[in-house]
Write a structure and sequence with these properties.
Strand content: under 5%
Number of strands: 0
Shape: globular
Radius of gyration: 21 Å
Helix content: over 70%
Distance between the termini: 38 Å
Largest sheet: none
Order of helices and strands: HHHHHHHHHHHHH
Length: 330
């Protein structure tokens, strides 16, 4: 467990460096050079986590362990992530030299950054994989798993930030959105619903979603994404509203007690969490910048986000009859 805690702490520092670098990009603090203070923080976090993984593996092998057993169970893929960063870092520098520095969305989708994103996900998910290979434990012993999954989810939302409702206040301000932007905003919010809801349901399916997990995972993610962008005088209100909705999601978890053995409660929980998030989001916009969508649209997004969560529940937890039929055909 001590290794899990150290790896989790370094993973949070690593992801913090990623978001700090993202903040520098969104606030015009980055020059056309690879060597920036923001990259220094990011790569320092990487090297610290890589040093833990590589150093522990070398120490174990020196004491007679087989290379397959050099790291705790679940951390093998984290070393693959380290290798991807050792390849992706020079690749990123070479990419800048050949094609120049990315701007805006280009920085999220460049091939070099895709390699780095995958490597970061593999490195920071070590505590998650390790925990899922052990029986459920006390709440505090499950915390590294929850924070690790938060890192993974935040890594995904960082590279899909153009779809996050806190990155682009799609529905803010009457008359602000054109028809194309409105449609893009609706699709983007539903995509973010999938990204934020599916990991919760996967843990819940495993019986590993303790009280407070929704607040930790969704709350930290919303705060981190909100920090990336400056939307004038009202950016903090939607962030606070979505954090409050995450807390309410934990309340819903306690009230419904969803589990694989209680599929109806499982599906109501899957429907309720994204509904709460988007209802809070639009309520915050109504109190600040105003809602640019018609009531048909914004209420439709709230309802449809719940439907998306409900449909995801069937993917994560199929009906019992469907499982039985599948087993019979094998």
């Amino acid at each position: 467990m001590r290794f899990d805690w150290i790896a989790t702490a370094l993973s949070l520092i690593f992801l913090g460096g990623l978001y700090l670098d993202g903040w520098a990009h969104t606030h015009g603090r980055v020059d056309d050079t690879f060597f920036t203070p923001w990259h220094a923080v990011l790569y320092s976090g990487f090297f610290a986590l890589a040093a833990l993984l590589l150093g522990y593996a070398v120490w174990r092998i020196a004491r007679g362990a087989r290379w397959r057993d050099a790291l705790p169970d679940g951390y093998g893929l984290s070393l693959v992530g380290v290798a991807l960063w050792f390849v992706g870092g020079p690749f990123d520098m070479a990419w800048h030299s050949l094609f120049g520095f990315e701007a805006n969305v280009e920085a999220l989708l460049s091939p070099a950054h895709t390699v780095l994103a995958l490597g970061a996900a593999l490195m920071t998910s070590g505590p998650l994989r390790a925990a899922l290979r052990r029986p459920a434990a006390r709440w505090r012993d499950e915390l590294p798993m929850l924070l690790s999954l938060t890192c993974v989810v935040s890594n995904v939302t960082f590279f899909t930030q153009i779809a996050h409702p806190l990155a682009n206040l799609w529905a803010a301000g009457p008359g602000r959105s054109s028809s194309d932007i409105t449609e893009l905003g609706i699709v983007s919010m539903l995509l973010t619903t999938v990204i934020l809801t599916a990991p919760l349901l996967l843990l819940l399916r495993q019986g590993r979603l303790p009280f407070g997990a929704v607040t930790i995972m969704l709350g930290l993610n919303c705060v981190a994404t909100g920090v990336l962008f400056d939307h004038g005088p009202y950016p903090i209100v939607p962030v606070i509203a979505m954090v409050v909705a995450a807390i309410a999601g934990d309340g819903l978890r306690a009230a419904l007690r969803p589990s694989a053995r209680r599929p109806a409660a499982f599906r109501w929980f899957a429907l309720g969490v994204p509904t709460l998030l988007h209802a809070a989001y639009f309520a915050a916009l109504a109190l600040t910048a105003g809602i640019g969508y018609s009531p048909h649209l914004w209420m439709g997004v709230v309802v449809f986000s719940g439907v998306v969560g409900w449909l995801l529940s069937y993917l994560v937890l199929p009906p019992r009859g469907a499982v039985t039929r599948e087993a019979a055909t094998v």
